[in-house]
Amino acid sequence: MVVLFSITLIAYGQGTPGVLRCSRGTFDIHASRDPGSAIVARIQCGTAVLLIDEQFGSYHLRLEDGTDGYIITRNFGQFTIQPEGEPTSQSVPGRAPTSRPAVVTVPVAPNPSGGSEGFPRMEIFGGYSFIRPDVPGSLAPDGSDKTIQSLLGNVLGWSSNATINLNRFFGLTGEISAYYKNFDISIPDLAAKANLNLYTFLGGPTFKARKGAFEPFGHVLVGAGRPGANIGDSTDSTDFHETGLVIAGGGGLDVVVNDRLGIRAIQADYFPYRTSSGDTFTFNNIRWSTGILFRCGH
Question: pLDDT value at position 236?
Fold first, then answer.
């Protein structure tokens, strides 16, 4: 929603006195133009202010109690000066003629970091994902890890997670993902069809830097993986299932579209899976993801 921010200007001294006019209840006053700076005051529409200057869509104000601060508007458009009307002279006995003041009306784009505190309370991601398996060579019939990896290639799937942000930089994430692969096996002493799947359930901390429209992040998620496989031919088949340890350690970059929507341009994770039954193996996989980010709770 475009917010109309208007200040009635009457020039004097080192600033311009005016009145904050807006269409929402309050604005946060920051200690500097950095969106991550401390909030030193909160003012309501209609508050008398002294406008010191305006740079890059943020306004340096002084309040009646002497507090100096900045409204971080992040205005990506252009502002215009729209007079209320042509200046008119008013004759008052004993006073010089006066002119009607102009009104500066500034359309303010939504804060791309969202919320009065500069961050959304929850972020929900969903999108495309794939893993590049690293298979121990000891599992291949010929003792070569390249044999199975050439058969698997990239294992495609999807990933979704939700992060509850406790502050601007730290949140707790829960994630569910799934991956699938169907292929024919044709190697010495084995000809069959294989249907593979992997479901993972992870959780852990996420750290994010919120600077404008680009938000790099990192996370360490730990949980369980549930792989399954059906291997066989028309006469016989074997099913396999187990539960093992999965870790997703990595990060990526979110691009903010507006206060409700973002794009996860890239997410890359070291994604190992460790077996839990029989012989113990660690699959040192790499995972890539991209998709849509929904930003909630402003």
Answer: 75
